[in-house]
Amino acid sequence: MDSLGDRKFVDVPGSETHELPPLLVRMTPGVRRLDRVMEMAATLVQEEDLIPPRPEEYDGERRRMELAINLVDQYMAFVQHWQWGDSILSWIVQCESTFEMRSPLRHLLRPDLWPHASRSSFVTLLEDKAASKSVPAPAVDLERAVGMRLTFRQPPPLKCFSNQFLFYLHTSVAGTAYQTWAQMSPSPISGLPPERFSFQIFNTSLE
Q1: Domain containing residue 172
Q2: Labelling 76: which of 23, 160, 187, 205 has CA 20 to 30 A away?
């Protein structure tokens, strides 16, 4: 078992590089009606009284529009993270099937053996490959993305959120969901050595 600082990596038999399934991601937010999203944001700003009373010379309509645009930006970031998380979870399932079909890899995900990897090890592998520039760097926080997908089976419309909840969603909610999911596998968990695996990332938004 190899080590890098405090990190441990599972022993992969042999010396060959294993090709994993490609990761297919819609990298641009799949929102059909941006004008409807903007309308929802403007309604939220008005209903939640986010604009405090100001002197008459204060341009309240302009401030309302700025807050609405900010809400839309937060929501689009949420959708983008969710799409990445959804794609990553589907990719992990495909990778698990690949491991099961290859005898050198089959034992690596068995929690009754040590050292072993886990489902979260594939997220770390993706981070390692992006850091080494073996694959394009994701435009999102991967752990947060998976956490958002674990929290929502489908991305709700903006009207289901409040301004504050979108803020918490980007911080504590998604992070807690990911950590809970990652800790479902018994410790100690070792990583997958990035130099022993290869895969590609494809942007399905271009189709």
Answers
A1: 3-206
A2: 23
